[in-house]
Amino acid sequence: MARLTHASYAEAVETLIAGDRDLARVVARHGPPKLLSRPPGFPTLVYIIFEQQVSLASAKSTYDKVAALLPEFTAEAYLQLSDEALRAAGVSRQKARYTRLVAEATIAGDLPIHALGRKPDEEVRTLLTAITGIGNWTADVYLMLALRRPDLWPVGDLALVKAATAIKSRPHKPDKLWLENLGERYRPYRSVATGIFWRHYLHS
Question: What's this model's pTM, rounded to 2 decimal places?
Fold first, then answer.
């Protein structure tokens, strides 16, 4: 499966800004985005679930507290944590349930997490979203960050929506169809375009 490298990411940025002056302005103002990546596996998927609908700082704080409770961040060790311990670390009851389901699916083999890198995007998405608590946003972000897939466009991502609204001078929050159509112009590097939009959001 295609996997972005630092070199191919930089090349994709150049291709995108050559074809879109709005993205070119972002890169000229803030510099090119760096390839964002995390190690594939159970810990990263849990981290992304913690990031659902909260700030990045809040999610990192929760993740760090949970990691400190574990001798090793594995699905087996995670299931040994009590609900009280997870709540004390900042994990909501809902996210505790979701992440436990991920751990159980990983152990049972229903989620072959270490083999996802050898599967196409849609198959990865299907396997991930079969688990309660994992929607398209979580699956897309895992594909982008952990598997470094080049062509993801997470239309449900709030940072992407806000950045696209500003960069493309939209008077109102765009709907899903408009965002999907916008993403079409950035194929086959929509993940890289997302990185440029995120860069604008982080600096705005």
Answer: 0.94
